Amino acid sequence: MDKEDNHGKEPTYEILLKSIQFLVERAEKVNKENQQKFDQLSDRLQSIEASISKLSKFNVDARKSKDDARKEPITEKSFKLKHVFNVNRFMNGMHSFSESEDHFNVKWRMCVERRNNRLEFYVYCDPIAPPDQWSIRTRTECKLFGRYENDVSRSWENYYEKSGGLGIDFLTWEDMRKKYLVDGKLTVETKVTIVETTGWAKPKIRVFDESQKDVSDVILVASDTKFYVLKMFLSSQSSVFKALLLGSISESKQSEVKLDVSDPDDFHYFLEVLHGEPAIDDTNVEGVALLADMYDAPTVIRRCQEFLLEKSKKTVEKKREIANQYHLGKVEKTGKSGTTTHIRNHADLPEPTLSEMLMFIVVIMLIIWWKFG
Questions:
Q1: Hey, which of 91, 102, 115, 229 has its CA 20 to 30 A from 286?
Q2: Contact partners, residue 110, CB within 8 Å, separation at least 6
Q3: For the chain, how many structural domains are there in total?
Q4: Same domain for 241 and 286?
């Protein structure tokens, strides 16, 4: 009877063997799937690590760029104009202008002209609300961009006593066409440095002339103009003056120190602001901001920020340009509607913190777990 009951049935050990084989195959399959998931997870972790590495490098580079910018302030009243002129169909006597730009309260623009089959180049100067008599002396450096990186430059000086354009005969039209014309267009970049100005001075609020000799202990000379001031006060307001007047360099021992300043009027306004006077307006804010950055004077930098925010009539674009060029940081204003107006230095963009980077990693891990877990 027992033999009949077991007839046609697999022995128990064979069933057990097949079960073991099934479990082994299943385990191998699961192990293979897990290995694939592990490899995918490993790849993603490596990708995250690479991203974090790039992010850290970006932060270091950003801080380095910001520090470098702070170490190398602009020390002269200069600016650049750049424009692409379409001169492909120019005949003799034809000319073209770039857009006008406001720099140091003067409108500037470039002009190219074809005259006697030669290229002539001009820089136009148009002061905003000029005095009756004025002059501006500039150093001009003009560069034409060549099609094969064979750029050509010319330098010269201009002396303006009235609104208009001054320039030079640059080169033959044929040479320009062969070497510098790209698709009928000519790319020009010009650096203008204001060397000297006259006639722009406004009434002074405070004097720093020889009448202050008895209450001063050093004379600062800016373009042949003497300023009688106190070393300790200037040093408390400026790290550059502290090093210059109280440090170990030779100038600190001198009773008269010559400064690399081209505009004595701007320096006078700078000193007035440093001494608490409301000397900033739209005619001098750019020059004062340049000196504030050059001499690392936080008080004057703050006054320039406040003026640009509260009183300046310049365009938002120009305010932003001044703030960025002279490292004024950001200026924020909250209006009645709750909106905020920003003038922000690109170097002052917030840097991701360690906690923010860790949160980024956690979010990525959760996404991976949700997708592959």
A1: 229
A2: 81, 83, 97, 98, 121, 122, 123, 124, 188, 190
A3: 3
A4: yes
